[in-house]
Specification:
Elements (H helix, E strand, L loop, with lengths): L4 H6 L4 E2 L2 E2 L9 E2 L6 E12 L4 E12 L3 E5 L6 H7 L11 E8 L2 E2 L7 H7 E4 L10 H11 L6 H14 L3 H4 L12 H14 L4 E5 L7 H14 L4 E5 L3 H7 L2 E6 L2 E7 H6 L4 H7 L5
Parallel strand pairs: 3-13, 6-11, 6-12, 9-10, 10-11
Antiparallel strand pairs: 1-2, 4-5, 4-7, 7-8, 12-13
The structure holds adenosine-5'-triphosphate and magnesium ion.
């Protein structure tokens, strides 16, 4: 049962339903960082910007479970996007950004020197906050990646994959008669589904989403959330969101970040109803962020 907000606010810091919370000063992660069936395991991940001048995330250890949806939440600037970008080495594209530690997938550290980031970024795809279709037709937005990665050999195979990807992203019905028109001409919500279809088309296993609904209206958001729920049958999804309601609706586990530290990780219900750390409690009750 949800507590009355006034009752939550009146409760003395340090206690939650009679339990003692972990003190604000303690910055080691509370909760189960490991899962039974990990798809990726992050160990001691540090990220620095400006050639080491600024540390953005500190010693993060976290498993991402196969076929789970995991949310990353926390106040602005706490390192959610930075952490997400570690998972497919997108931070490599930022000058002066350095990543340390290990991210193990298939028994290999994705930061090993011999890892080719091009197939890695197909396997671990990313959807951004602002939909960013290529300045190409709807068809070519989807066909481009599979062609580059050699997943299709001829027009028939390409047609089939374009249709399948758009269907999976729940966009086919709306665009099947205008595939030759520019992707940028779609509505924001449609563009975001186009970007999801484009990510799916290259056969990823993991999809990273950085606030994928923050530029969308509630209806488009609901469509994307339904889609996330369906996609988790086949994919592993890590999503950054500022909406606690969204995290509650779509994810099974939630990670709470604060000033570069992973403070708490646990089942989503527990994080929002019965957190173990005072900083998580502060955030979900609106005392911080
Ligand atoms: N390219 C960059 N160069 C230097 N510092 C950066 C860069 N990107 C992020 N930072 C810094 O790293 C820290 C974490 O930023 P990050 O963008 O990961 O936070 P966030 O949790 O995603 O925030 P938001 O909720 O606002 O998106 C912040 O202090 C930010 O200023
Ligand atoms: Mg961010």
């Amino acid at each position: 049962m949800k507590e009355d907000q006034a009752a939550v606010d009146a409760r003395p810091a340090g206690k939650r339903a009679g339990r003692t919370l972990v003190a604000r000063e303690q910055r080691t992660t509370v909760g189960q960082i490991q899962v039974d069936n990990p798809r990726m395991s992050c160990r001691n991940v540090d990220v620095y910007y400006n050639f080491g001048e600024k540390q953005a995330i500190n010693n993060i250890c976290l498993d991402i479970g196969k076929n789970e949806v995991i949310s990353m939440i926390g106040p602005s600037g706490c390192g959610k996007s930075t952490f997400l970008r570690c998972l497919n080495r997108m931070n490599d594209t930022i000058e002066g950004c350095q990543v340390q530690g290990e991210i193990i997938m298939d028994k290999k550290n994705i930061y090993d020197k011999d890892v080719d980031v091009v197939p890695l970024r197909a396997q671990v795809g990313m959807v951004f906050q602002k939909p960013n279709p290529f300045p190409k037709s709807i068809y070519d937005n989807i066909a481009y990646g599979p062609k580059i990665h050699g997943l299709v050999q001829n027009r028939d195979e390409t047609d089939e994959l374009v249709e399948k990807s758009l269907k999976r992203a729940g966009l086919w019905r709306e665009v099947k008669d205008r595939l030759d028109q520019p992707g940028t001409g779609l509505s924001g919500g449609q563009q975001q589904r186009l970007c999801i279809a484009r990510t799916i088309a290259v056969n990823p296993e993991i999809i990273l989403m950085d606030e994928p609904c923050s530029a969308l209206d509630p209806i488009a958001t609901a469509i994307i959330e339904e889609l996330i729920d369906e996609l988790k049958q086949e994919y592993t999804i890590a999503i950054v969101t500022h909406s606690m309601q969204q995290a509650s609706r779509v994810s099974q586990r939630t990670a709470y970040f604060h000033l570069g530290d992973l403070i708490e990780i646990g089942p989503t219900d527990q994080i929002f109803l019965n957190p173990l750390h005072q900083l998580t409690e502060d955030y979900i009750t609106g005392r911080f962020g």
